């Protein structure tokens, strides 16, 4: 039996993708190639990530021969950059399949409803329930005569339930790899971060009504309006700080005395490619309201509100370090 490779940390995966994009860009120099080799040698996980991405690249070449050669032959820089954009999207997609839990990722790519990174979408279900999908969300909608079931593989949902007119009445549940959230007449969010992320598991925040959050082992926690809880994959649900209204549903990212590294962790959910942060500035704090529709503007603003320098060597690679 073939053993599934262990998931790698998301920052390592992002770094590997960033290096791949840079090397494909046609803008790599001897110095940047030396930096890439130093990155590979700095940590065994870095080398493991790079070997996996090389294997992924080989599979793409088998399925789409000539793709990389087309990029190399692009006669103009602008044309090359456009081709790079498509290649980078393929890179991020391919890496995501093996970066997290393989079963969840596979189901996610086959999900009936998906949003791309940075995309948000509203849905009205047949019973009147309203969904808003956040960035990089994958789910299946499975309504039967006995159950209204949403299967969330990854991403985030804002759910406003409607009374079920079906007889007998059917409960509405959201199943994730960590457990099940059962709506008790409510408005709430469910977010699932897959294995390989900084904090894998399911988070539920309730704004109206109540939700019952049940782990795979059967232990349940009731969450009332104004409360939140987190359920780690394979763990037990625990209460969290009271939630604020989901700012992402209004198209903004809100920071309130937030560490820069935590802020960028959130921003990475909405932006493809690699964002590198120097350790010296990770603890800087910021507050503000940032429009998610323009992540380039958010990055530019960081250099105006914090003593940092933001560099973009290539389109999908951002480096943030101390100013000056």
TrEMBL record:
Residues 14-55 form the FecR N-terminal domain. One of its GO terms (molecular function) is sigma factor antagonist activity. Pfam families: DUF4880 (PF16220), FecR (PF04773). Transmembrane segments: none annotated. It comes from the Bacteria. Residues 113-212 form the FecR protein domain. InterPro entries: FecR (IPR006860), FecR_N (IPR032623), Ferrdict_sens_TM (IPR012373). This is DUF4880 domain-containing protein.
């Amino acid at each position: 039996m073939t053993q599934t490779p262990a998931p790698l940390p998301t920052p390592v995966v992002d770094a590997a993708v960033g290096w791949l994009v840079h090397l494909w860009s046609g803008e790599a120099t001897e110095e940047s190639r030396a930096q890439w080799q130093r990155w590979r040698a700095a940590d065994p996980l870095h080398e493991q990530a790079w070997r996996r991405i090389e294997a992924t690249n080989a599979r793409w070449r088998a399925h789409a021969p000539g793709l990389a050669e087309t990029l190399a032959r692009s006669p103009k820089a602008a044309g090359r950059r456009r081709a790079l954009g498509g290649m980078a999207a393929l890179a991020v997609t391919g890496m995501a399949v093996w970066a997290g839990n393989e079963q969840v990722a596979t189901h996610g790519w086959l999900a009936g409803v998906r949003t791309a990174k940075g995309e948000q979408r509203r849905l009205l279900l047949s019973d009147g329930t309203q969904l808003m999908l956040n960035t990089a969300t994958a789910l299946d909608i499975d309504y039967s005569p006995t159950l209204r079931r949403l299967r969330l593989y990854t991403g985030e949902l804002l759910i406003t339930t409607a009374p079920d007119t079906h007889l007998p009445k059917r409960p509405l549940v959201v199943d994730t790899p960590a457990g099940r959230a059962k709506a008790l007449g409510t408005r709430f969010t469910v977010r699932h971060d897959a294995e390989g992320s900084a904090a894998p598991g399911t988070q539920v925040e309730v704004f109206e009504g109540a939700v019952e959050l049940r782990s795979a082992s059967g232990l349940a926690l009731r969450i009332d309006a104004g409360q939140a809880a987190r359920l780690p994959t394979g763990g037990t649900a625990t209460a969290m700080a009271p939630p604020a209204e989901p700012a992402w549903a209004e198209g903004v990212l809100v920071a309130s005395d937030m560490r820069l590294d935590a802020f960028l962790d959130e921003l990475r959910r909405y932006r493809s490619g690699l964002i590198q942060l120097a350790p010296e500035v990770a603890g800087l704090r910021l507050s503000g309201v940032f429009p998610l529709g323009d992540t380039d503007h958010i990055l530019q603003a960081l250099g105006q509100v914090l003593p940092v320098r933001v560099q973009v060597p290539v389109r999908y690679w951002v480096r943030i370090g101390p100013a000056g």
